[in-house]
């Protein structure tokens, strides 16, 4: 099998590219005021962590699963883990505050065990960025700075971890409340179906290459394929099968556009039995053969 694929980067690899040192706990804050940094990773890639991206001035342009997003002053972007992301450009006057964190850190806060989990709420919503007021953007920036200061305190400082996790929890709930307001005041507490949808999306991100059957995902969730399809359709607006096909198609587009692999190698990377079945699948999804899409993408 060809080894070329959409690259996956850890948080430590990103920090190294930015010239940053790893912060003590499973959380990292990057606050940039001044000349905009060079984009550390230009190629399409995945990362193993969620990213909060707050623009205080200027603008940044990036693609998330091949969808272009332009984030401007007082806008906040949430990038979930494992999505395909590519930074396109940043303006010279860009000022940002960013935060990434590990799943282990979420568990440490105890949020994931509570009846109201804003991190799960964020993962189910379809709009990844929101417009904030000036006051709201400044407040989020101050909360990120507070989390940074708590994280960088000396280890023997009394209640250091407790203060850090509480500051982080406050930040997370504030962000979730902004998303809730944008989503027409949808309730913050997830329903059982929304929880299933969030778990399905996480499973899909991890297994979509080698597992494209509804039965696999239904088995992982201990439900029937019919109930899975109904639940995803009700909560997200598309069927589980449509989401699986979209994820595979997105990955195929990125590989065809950014790699030098042959179409047969791309088919193998995506666990199709042969090039014929991959080409048939791709044309059904896009209206183009893989070679036609590659040729069209090369002139963009």
UniProtKB/TrEMBL annotation:
SUPFAM superfamilies the record matches:
Homeodomain-like, Regulatory protein AraC
Q: Which UniProt keywords apply?
A: DNA-binding, Transcription, Transcription regulation
User: GO molecular function, one example?
Assistant: sequence-specific DNA binding
Recorded superkingdom = Bacteria
Write down the InterPro entries for this protein, in alphabetical order.
Homeodomain-like_sf, HTH-like, HTH_AraC, Tscrpt_reg_AraC-type_HTH
* Residue ranges of domain HTH araC/xylS-type in the record: 198-296
Key word 4Fe-4S present in the record? no
Does the keyword section mention Transcription? yes
Protein name, entry field: Transcriptional regulator
